Amino acid sequence: MAPEKNRFSENVYRYSIPVSPDLYAHNPDYFSTFKPRIHKNSRESADAVIQCQIDLFGKEGIGKVMGGLDTFTGDWTALTFSFCCPDRLALASYLVDFAFVHDDVDYKETIQTVRLTLDLMCVVSSANNGKKKYTSESDARDEALRTGSYAPEWLNEGRNEQVIAKTMYKLVEIDGTLGPKFIQQWENWKRSEKEFVEVEAQQCDSLQRFLSLCYYIRGCQ
Predict the structure, then answer these.
(1) What is the superkingdom listed in this entry's lineage (predicted)?
(2) DSSP class of residue 19?
């Protein structure tokens, strides 16, 4: 066995414990033959998920999105990355939940962006919290994408920016080599999604066309 595989196997068993078979053995939804393991520090991982949601939504908003939190079998990160170094587990769990939330936001933005028609001509203006009229669809679309006006109402933009800054700072602090690489990949992801939304909006002037495009992209034709 290669040295890398040996180290991986050692970490899996060093940092994790088996999940109780009572949680999945007789569950018809669990069809895998793998015996799952969960990180020994799963409580820290779950706490990081809760902290992420508090930072984004406030204490009253915990559970607005499922994210990686699962109080029944353990949170997603503790189960999926049971080999994670303990000193990085909380940050990894925080990042995963943060990404879950932003993936939902991008999906909702995409759905709403293709419903341009007349609604697009009346985008919420963050300056005066009122209605701002635009003379063309392209101007309204650009403003909506730029300001994030299509983000769900449960995402507070001020908190969101603070969480991004705090998270990226912590990443570089904990790993000066991989931290900047993660930040670059995050920016690439957000940029590519924005470009995809813009192309999608140009191609789809109705919900039916948008659904047809999704059907085609996913190889269903």
Answers:
(1) Eukaryota
(2) P
The tens-digit pLDDT sequence of the chain (221 residues) is 455 556 656 767 889 999 988 888 888 888 888 888 999 999 999 999 899 888 888 888 887 777 777 666 668 899 988 888 899 999 999 988 888 877 755 544 444 443 333 333 333 333 334 445 545 445 544 554 454 444 444 456 677 778 888 888 888 888 888 888 888 888 887 777 666 666 666 666 777 777 777 777 666 76
d(CA 44, CA 112): 36
Q: Which two tokens stand for residue 24?
A: 């999945």
What are the tokens at 39? Answer: 């990180």
Tokens of 189: 């992801």
Angle of CA points 5, 171, 191, to nearest 5°? 95
* Separation of alpha carbons 131 and 75, rounded Å: 41
Q: Where are the beta strands (DSSP E) in the chain?
A: 16-18, 37-39, 122-125, 130-133
Paired strand residues for 122: 133
How far does the chain reach from its first CA to its final CA, in angstroms? 43
Q: Is the dihedral of CA 106, 108, 112, 114 positive or negative?
A: positive
Q: How far apart are CA 201 and CA 194, in angstroms?
A: 11
